[in-house]
């Protein structure tokens, strides 16, 4: 496995090119936290359990993400600021197929 390059636009509109490891079982929410791209306490509030939508992102470029699961779909049905391209960062685990992924972090309620 290797690292992948992804682009994350923070809530202030600043785009960040980041390198994400695919060999550490990390998800997108954890990548956002590790690069400190969202204010402390405003991302991953539930700890990555698909129960709060604080890690919601808008997918700008989808290189082939896994299909949304039932828990993620149910949480997004109750979340704020949801768009057609919304996903939960905690449900997007870093894999090589995500090379070139581009997302924008959704506003925090």
Automatic annotation (TrEMBL):
UniProt keywords, alphabetically: 2Fe-2S, Iron, Iron-sulfur, Metal-binding
Species: Chryseobacterium paridis
Gene3D superfamilies for the chain: 3.10.20.30
InterPro entries to which the protein is assigned, alphabetical: 2Fe-2S_ferredoxin-like_sf, Adrenodoxin-like, Beta-grasp_dom_sf
PANTHER family: FERREDOXIN/ADRENODOXIN (PTHR23426), TRANSFER PROTEIN, PUTATIVE-RELATED (PTHR23426:SF63)
Superkingdom of the source species: Bacteria
Name under which the protein is recorded: Ferredoxin
SUPFAM superfamilies on file: 2Fe-2S ferredoxin-like
């Amino acid at each position: 496995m290797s690292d992948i390059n992804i682009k994350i636009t923070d809530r202030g509109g600043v785009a960040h090119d980041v390198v994400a490891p695919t060999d550490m079982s990390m998800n997108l929410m954890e990548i956002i936290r590790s690069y400190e791209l969202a204010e402390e306490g405003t991302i991953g509030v539930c700890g990555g359990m698909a129960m709060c939508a604080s890690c919601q992102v808008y997918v700008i470029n989808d290189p082939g993400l896994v299909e949304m699961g039932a828990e993620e779909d149910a949480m997004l049905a109750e979340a704020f600021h949801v768009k057609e391209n919304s996903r939960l960062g905690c449900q997007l685990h870093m894999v090589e197929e995500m090379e070139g992924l581009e997302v924008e972090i959704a506003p925090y309620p």
